[in-house]
Amino acid sequence: MKHMNSEVKEERTSNKKRIDLFLVPIVLIAAFLNLFKIWTDEYANAYYTAAVKSMLQSFHNFFYASFDPGGYVTIDKPPVVFWIQTISAKIFGFYGWSVILPQALAGIGSVLLLYVLVKRTFGVWAGRFAALAMALTPIVPAVSRTNNIDSMLVFTLLVATWMLFRAVRTAKFGWVLAAFAMIGVAFNMKMLQAYMVLPAFYVFYVVATKITWKKKIAFLTTATALMLAVSVSWAVVVDSTSADKRPYMGSSQTNSVLELAFGYNGINRLTGNTSVTGSGHKQPAQTEQQTASSETKQTSNSSADSSQSSNQRKSSSSQKMQAPGGGNQNGMFNTGNPGPFRLFQKGLSDQISWLLPFVIFSIVGLFAGVKFKGPYTTKQKESLFWLAWLLPVAVFFSIAGFFHQYYLIMLAPPIAAFAGAGAVALWSMYKQHNGWKSWLLPGGILTTAALQVYIMSPYVSSIGVAPIAGVGALGVILALVLAVRKQRKNSLTNYLGAAAMVVLLAMPAYWAMTPIIYGGNSMLPSAGPDSSSGMGGPPSTATNSKQSGFNGMQPPGSSSGNSSSNGGQMPGGSSNNGQMQPPSGSSNSGQMQMPGGSSNNSQMPNSSSSKSSSSKRKSGGMNAEVNQKLLNYLTKNNTGEKYLFATTDSTSAAPYIIKTGKPVMAMGGFSGSDPILTVSKLKAMIKKGEVKYFYLSGMGKGGQSDVITWIKDNSKEIPSSKWQSTSSSAQQGPSGNGTLYEITLK
After folding, report:
1. Higher confidence at residue 201 or residue 570?
2. First to last CA, the chain
3. CA-to-CA distance for 714 and 24, rounded, in angstroms?
4. pTM
5. pLDDT of 681-695, one tens digit each?
6. Residue 418 CA to chain centroid, in angstroms?
7. Which has the closest alpha carbon to 33: 113, 125, 119, 103?
8. At the N or C end, where does the chain have fewer CB atoms within 10 A?
């Protein structure tokens, strides 16, 4: 106990010292990567931004995280992050940047927290390097620059980690309760994903605390019970409320939060058995598989010319579609094929794995000589914590049936922690000529440089040969020189070690800046020269080395002589005046829904044909523009109806909610497949005068096909000349390829 108290006093003393001047530039780098130009993202993730607009209008919408102002359906996640975003929008005004700001600050906060966590045990240089590695992990700023949940989730879990470490140091049970309660709060951000860190919390507390087993079990049981109570608190309130007094729980099949948590947002992520898919970017499974098949076929043939690529895409549609994550080179949404080396495959490795070989060597060094029965040093105990975070999460992403690239931010804290702690530990072993351990430093540098060359090699057309050759050559040279100079102790050796660390962080730093350089995608954030495409992975069939992304998507601000005919083509589709086209053989009357988009007239966000002269990016989705002529018609002819209009899914509805703040009904939830509406319910709503206009594009999805059929059979079609805009900019949003209907029942 005296030792514990002395540690607390030491901590308080250190807190009174001056700010670490080396930390200042690291924080500034993180601030730049997370904050710069977020004000250009006008819609952010439009699905979530529309929810914030709705939540600002009433406490009812705020509490339930309603997608629309009418309280018809919720978004597909619990509300805590969106409560924070709504508060930010209330304080600063409703803008794209104001809903992104909390996540950007959380990204910076995670860098600071990791510094604090690592520094105290492993030393100040370990803390600095860990913080820098966290800041420069490409997927971290890519996600933090959006209003997606994951950046805030990671920050909250790091706060819980700080509480747990303090609980062990001070031997105070209150901090244990606080740490597990914080995981419960994180559950109310993204449900079961928050529980991925539980193995680390349990293992660390058991190993690190010097109390009896009886007390350990009692304390952990009590803390776990509190965590579960906090986790399900909101869900129990919602599920206990009568369905007619609250919005439908979006993306659930039984209108239940608990079903959403443990099914769609839980086990189904591992198995891939879900009819709609994730984090605000959902679509029917069949369409996802078609998209993934077309995408990966195109990517795997990136060296072919454009005509060959087109033929290959056409032929691929006749082949059997692959299941999530399986059968194709890059898997669904470039998440690779399940297997032990998945994190080293294209599409994932450039988001998170740049330092993984160095981390592996660091783990070997940090645990060298450790006996199973102990005793363990503080460094070994905390290393065990980070390992128990890293391994289960890495295993999950190696075998999971469905996830998006940006979920990989969950791996960033343990990787950065091991990079910082390992750099200091391996350097110490190297300088002390500690037998075989002294070879870990040059070995880690060499293998890490080799992996980085492998990661960059598919991007030769985008970044050129020089950086790839430079990292490879410098990595080999520095590793060999360090190996040769093992017996020498002078300042030159120190400089060589520092230079090696700079080389290993150079390309991750560039990749981390790509959302700023090339533009980001708020629906499917990823890093890389094709970051604006939102699909991650190597570019394909680019006709110009300066172009990036799929089919030469150009960075924001670039121009092309034929931009209007080549704008923003997504994988598997052909371009027609910048419009999305479905892969051959797709269903729904040619309608293709990519994550965050639904209509067949949708453009790729940030394409050069989409308001290229504007300083604002409407990257909220494939359909993030408003057809002003349609809006004028609906507003003029509204005779007191609650809903401005109804449409199949949330993608067409979101921009109009953001623009007007008026209720727009997404009849089938985000993807259009939620079993919310029946014909009888719709008849009742029409008779009550709640809705009379319906915008339909393509066929109905999932459980609403009967509703769509009834609408078409009992409505009056509105001539397109009354609402359809002929301007090119209006091709985004409900326009030429859909139909507007009116129904009035007596």
Report:
1. 201
2. 79
3. 65
4. 0.83
5. 999 999 999 999 999
6. 23
7. 103
8. C
Distances (CA, A) of 393 to 32, 263, 561: 28, 19, 46
**Strand pairing class (739-742; 693-696):** antiparallel
Peptide bond preceding 655 in cis form (omega within 30 of 0): no
The Cβ of residue 432 has, within 10 Å, a number of other Cβ atoms equal to: 10
CA distance 653 to 697: 12
Classify residue 497 by burial, with Cβ atoms within 10 Å: 0-12, 13-18, 19+.
buried
**Which residue in 196, 231, 146 sits closest to 389, CA to CA?**
196
What is the rounded distance in angstroms from the CA atom of residue 422 to the CA atom of residue 120? 15
Per residue, the 3-state secondary structure of 553-612, as one string, reads CCCCCCCCCCHHHCCCCCCCCCCECCECCCCCCCCCCCCCCCCCCCCCCCCCCCCCCCCC
CB 529 within 8 A of CB 462: yes
576: β partners:
579
Res 601 pLDDT > 80: no
Q: Is 695 left (phi over 0), alpha (psi -120 to 50) or beta?
A: beta
DSSP code at position 386: H
DSSP assignment of 497-518: HHHHHHHHHHHHHHHHHHHHHT
Residues 60, 66 contacting (CB under 8 angstroms) = yes
Contact present, 189 and 149 (Cβ < 8 Å):
yes
Record the tokens describing residue 364, joined without a space: 């070997």
Q: Which residues contact 388 (CB under 8 A, 6 or more apart)?
A: 199, 200, 203, 204
Q: What is the DSSP string of 171-197?
A: T-HHHHHHHHHHHHHHHHHHGGGGGGG
What CA–CA distance (Å, rounded) separates 24 from 226?
37
Q: Parallel, antiparallel, or unpaired for β 739-742 and 665-666?
A: unpaired
Helix (H) or strand (E) holding 549, with range, is: none
Return the amino acid letter for 103.
Q
Question: How many CB atoms are located within 10 Å of the residue 116 CB?
Answer: 17
Band (401; pLDDT cuts 50, 70, 90): confident
511: exposed, middle or buried (C-beta count within 10 Å: 0-12, 13-18, 19+)? buried
**Locate tokens 């009590």: which residue?**
222
8-state DSSP, 540? B
Tell me how far apart the alpha carbons of residues 526 and 520 are, in angstroms, rounded to a whole number.
Answer: 7
